[in-house]
Design brief:
The complex is a heterodimer. By secondary structure, chain A is mostly helical. Chain A has 9 helices and 4 strands. The longest helix of chain A has 24 residues. By secondary structure, chain B is of the alpha+beta class. In chain B, strand 6 and strand 7 form a beta hairpin. Chain B is elongated. Chain B starts with a strand and ends in a 6-residue tail after the last helix. Chains A and B meet through helix 4 and helix 7 of A and strand 2, helix 5, helix 8 and helix 9 of B.
Chain lengths: 275, 253
C-alpha cells in the first residue's frame, strides 16, 4: 500500500470492516456543479462587496442611498446621507479613515454567515464537508459546530435581530425614495423600485429564517394554547420552505441595489423618474 | 419489454470484496431489487441481499445505487439510461456482513441511548388528551421506516468512524425532536442531552439526510434545526435562559 492508501484505510468509508471500495464516491452524476456555482456566486459577491465597502464614494444620490452604506453613521458620510445622525464620528486606523460601510456590513455579513441555509452552502462548497452527499470529504478530523469558532454559529439569532433593525432602515430608505432630488414627496423613479424590491427581498429572507420560525412559535410545545402564534408559525413555515430562494434573491438584490445607486451617484446613468 | 442491462454488484465480506460485472434482463416496470433477485436466481445463487416488503415501507433493502443511498425496491429501472451501468454496493457507513448486507446494529445501540417518552406522573392510562395541532409535528417524524439511509449518508459518521461514539445521527435527532415537541413529555434536560450526549452540535446541517429520506421527512428543517434553536434557548441565549428561570415557561423544560 502507498502512504496515501494507508491513510485512506484508516478513515471514513475506508475504515476496517466496511465494504472494500477504493473510490471516494461511486456517484455518476455531476455532483460537483452545485458547489462550483455556489463558489462562483459567493466569490463574485465578496469581491464586489469588498471593493464597494472600501470605495467610500458613489453611495448616495439624493434621495437614493446604497444598502451597503445605510445607515451612514460616520462624520465622513457624504452630505445628506446621514439620515440617522453621525454617532460614530470618524474613526481611523493607521491614518486611514474607516469606511462607513464597514460598521454596517458586519451585521448582514454575520446574519448570512450564521444562516442555516448558507451554512449548508458554504460547508459544502468551500469547506467540502462534505462536497456533496455520499462524496467522501477530505478532512481527517471533524468536530462540527461543537467548539470555537464554529460554536459561534449558535449566535444566529442575535444577527437576526440586528438584521430586522437594518430591514426597517432599508425600508425607510425605500420610502424616502418616493421623493425627488429636491426633497418633494410624491415622485417615483427606477431607483424607488430598486430599493423597494431590495427591502422586500430582505424582509422575505428574514421572515423565512429558521430562527424567525422558532421565535415566532416553533419553540412552543402546545400550539393549541397559542392559536395566534400557531397561525404565524404556519405562515413562516410556508415561507421557510423557500428560504434558500430568498437567500439567493436577496443577496443578488442587495448587490444590484448598490450597483444601481453607484451608477446613479457616479453619473454613469440617470435615475429615470416615472412621475 | 425486456432489455439487457449491465450491473456491477459488490460482493465480499468484512475483509475483502470487489465489484463484479453482470449482464441481466430487466423487464418494464421493474425496480432494482427485482433485477438483483434475478441475478440471485440465475447467476449468483449465494448473493446476500436484505429485503422484506418490496413496498418502501420496511426499510430493509437500503443499498447504494450509483453511489447514492437508496431503497432498492423504490428505485425504478426506468430511471436509468439504456446504456448505463448500474453499480450496487452495500451501505458504506456501516460494517459489511456479506455482499449487500451490512451490520446496522450501531443504530439500535443509539436508539437505546435516547431517553424514552416520560408522561406526567399523575397521568393515568387512557387519560391523555391532545389536539391534532399539538402532535402533528411529531407525527411527521413517526413516518420514519428506519431504513437508515440518513445515517448512512451523514458525513459525520460516514467519513469519520471515530464519531460514532458521540453522535446519534439524524434518525435519532428526529426521535429526540419528536419527544421534545410532544406536549406531554415531561423529561427535563432533553435539549441539553441532545447537545452534550447525542452530538447535535456535530451536525453542520448540510441536509444530505433530508435528500435521501424515502419518506420525505424534512429532517433538517423540521427536526434538527428546531432542536438546535431549542438548544440555543437553554445553553447559548442568556436572555432566554434568564426569562425561563423567572417565568418558568413550559416550553423550555
Amino acid at each position: 500500500m502507498t502512504a496515501m492508501d494507508t491513510n485512506k484505510a484508516k478513515t471514513g468509508v475506508f475504515s476496517a470492516g466496511r465494504a472494500l471500495i477504493t473510490d471516494r464516491t461511486l456517484r455518476t452524476d455531476k455532483w460537483w456543479i452545485q458547489p462550483l456555482i455556489t463558489v462562483g456566486v459567493f466569490v463574485s459577491f465578496i469581491i464586489y462587496a469588498t471593493f464597494r465597502a472600501f470605495e467610500k464614494q458613489n453611495y448616495f444620490a439624493e434621495p437614493l442611498i446604497s444598502p451597503f452604506y445605510s445607515p451612514c453613521l460616520s462624520t465622513v458620510c457624504v452630505e445628506g446621507s446621514a439620515h440617522f445622525g453621525t454617532p460614530i464620528g470618524a474613526l481611523s486606523i493607521f491614518g486611514m479613515v474607516i469606511s462607513p460601510a464597514l460598521f454596517i456590513l458586519i451585521f448582514p455579513l454575520g446574519f448570512r454567515l450564521t444562516c442555516y441555509y448558507y451554512r449548508k452552502a458554504y460547508y459544502r462548497s468551500f469547506w467540502m464537508s462534505p462536497p456533496a452527499c455520499a462524496v467522501a470529504e477530505p478532512h481527517k478530523k471533524y468536530t462540527g459546530e461543537t467548539r470555537a469558532p464554529l460554536i459561534l454559529q449558535n449566535g444566529h439569532r442575535w444577527f437576526f435581530y440586528a438584521g430586522l433593525v437594518l430591514n426597517i432602515i432599508l425600508t425607510y430608505d425605500a420610502v424616502i425614495a418616493f421623493k425627488n432630488p429636491e426633497g418633494e414627496w410624491g415622485h417615483m423613479s427606477v431607483g424607488t423600485l430598486v430599493l423597494l424590491a431590495n427591502a422586500t427581498f430582505l424582509w422575505l429572507y428574514s421572515a423565512s429564517c429558521h430562527t424567525c420560525r422558532h421565535t415566532i412559535g416553533g419553540r412552543l410545545r402546545n400550539f393549541s394554547a397559542h392559536p395566534v402564534r400557531y397561525k404565524a408559525w404556519t405562515i413562516v413555515s410556508k415561507l421557510n420552505h423557500y428560504h434558500p430562494n430568498f437567500a439567493w434573491v436577496s443577496l443578488i438584490g442587495v448587490a444590484f441595489a448598490d450597483f444601481y445607486v453607484r451608477q446613479v451617484a457616479s453619473g454613469a446613468i440617470t435615475n429615470f423618474y416615472f412621475f | 419489454m425486456t432489455r439487457k442491462i449491465k450491473m456491477r454488484i459488490w460482493r465480499g465480506n468484512s475483509e475483502t470484496g470487489s465489484l463484479q460485472d453482470v449482464s441481466v434482463d430487466a423487464n418494464e416496470g421493474e425496480v432494482v431489487l427485482d433485477v438483483i433477485h434475478r441475478v440471485q436466481a440465475t447467476q449468483m445463487g449465494d448473493l446476500a441481499v436484505r429485503w422484506n416488503c418490496k413496498a418502501g415501507k420496511c426499510g430493509s433493502c437500503s443499498v447504494e445505487i450509483n453511489g447514492k443511498p437508496r431503497l432498492a425496491c423504490m428505485t425504478q429501472m426506468a430511471s436509468f439510461a439504456e446504456d448505463e451501468t448500474i453499480t450496487v454496493t452495500p451501505l458504506r457507513a456501516f460494517p459489511v456482513i456479506k455482499d449487500l448486507v451490512t451490520d446496522v446494529s450501531f443504530n439500535y445501540k443509539k436508539a437505546m441511548e435516547i431517553p424514552s417518552f416520560e408522561p406526567p406522573a399523575d397521568l393515568k392510562p387512557g387519560e391523555a388528551r391532545m389536539q391534532q395541532i399539538d402532535v402533528e409535528r411529531s407525527q411527521e417524524f413517526r413516518k420514519c421506516i428506519e431504513c437508515f439511509l440518513c445515517q448512512d449518508t451523514c458525513h459525520v459518521i460516514r467519513d469519520h468512524e471515530e464519531n460514532k461514539k458521540s453522535f446519534a445521527g439524524p434518525r435519532f435527532f428526529i426521535r429526540i425532536a419528536e419527544l421534545d415537541m410532544h406536549p406531554l413529555d415531561m423529561l427535563r434536560n432533553r435539549k441539553q442531552k441532545a447537545q452534550e450526549e447525542h452530538g447535535l452540535g456535530m451536525c453542520n446541517i448540510t441536509k444530505c439526510c433530508t435528500e435521501v429520506c424515502p419518506e420525505h421527512i424534512r429532517i433538517t428543517d423540521n427536526a434538527i434545526i428546531p432542536m438546535k434553536e431549542r438548544v440555543v434557548d437553554v445553553k447559548y441565549d442568556p436572555v432566554r435562559w434568564l426569562g425561563s428561570k423567572i417565568r418558568r415557561r413550559e416550553e423550555v423544560l
